[in-house]
Amino acid sequence: MLSGSDFLSVQDLEKREVLELFRRAAAFKRKPLGTCLRHKTIAMLFAKPSTRTRVSFEVAISHLGGRDIYLSAGDLQVSRGESLGDTARVLSRYVDGIVARLFKHEDLLALAEYAAIPVINGLTDLLHPCQALADLFTIQETFRKLRGIRVAYIGDGNNNVTHSLMHACTLLGVDLTIACPDGYQPLERVSREALQNARSSGAELRIVQDPREAVKGADVVYTDTWVSMGEEAEAREREQAFRGYQVNSRLLGYARKQVKVMHDLPAHRGKEITSEVMDGPASLIFQQAENRLHVEKALLSLIYG
Ligand code: CP
Ligand code: NVA
After folding, report:
1. Which ligand is nearest to the CA of 122?
2. pLDDT of residue 1
3. What is the pLDDT at residue 210?
4. In the chain, how many domains are there?
5. From the CA of 224, how far away is ligand 2's center (Å)?
């Protein structure tokens, strides 16, 4: 159960816990305030930039009666070599939880190991589980069901957003097809975990190369940046590799007529997605961004309730 625990991966949750979380998220969307963080302080330890994760968590914490302290990793002694373990041990004596955005997933695991308080993954190079929860909540809200929905993910398969989406879709029985170029497939370990989930939920997971094949019959087409934070040095090579993977109206022509489009943001308009699609009637993108707030309140209420 989530109460008092870390949330580092979608794999930390059972299906029924996610469904309870979605029920709470819908309730917070109707009635935004709560009290579960009264007299509690949450540290926001960020080593990478953030708009949505930072602001949605800060607002969520405040709406639940708590307060947050934003800690840019560059301002902490970790920037001078203090270990994350020692940082976690010290923070545990001051605050009630840590939302962390780090580069290496192993660093997050070290932080969680030494922290005596709950640690929430606000994104690592490997996973972005809070994003995936908000994404699946958005799909449920839009289609009024999860089972039988078909999602096509177009772009970088070896990516934090893709990996957590694989965990979440397969846990909840949503069919997922990923179209990515050779050399950008999801990490083998994540594929194995997702296939294991799929065996229990009945979801279908496919990895293909052709984006048209992936979007055929899709209810949702999802994409993310081709160049994630920390990959800037590979930008040119990646833009070359992902040419042909843009989500545009031509590609959507191969999907269902009522297809919806998702993107975790920030988007690079004209690269992985066109402005026409982002701002068009199929876009769930800003509803999806809003839902980060409601879903994070639900998550905090399960951990601290
Ligand atoms: N989607 C997302 O996590 O956005 P930020 O990087 O702005 O937090
Ligand atoms: N894959 C992107 C997600 C940003 C929210 C990145 O890691 O930069």
Report:
1. 1
2. 64
3. 98
4. 2
5. 7
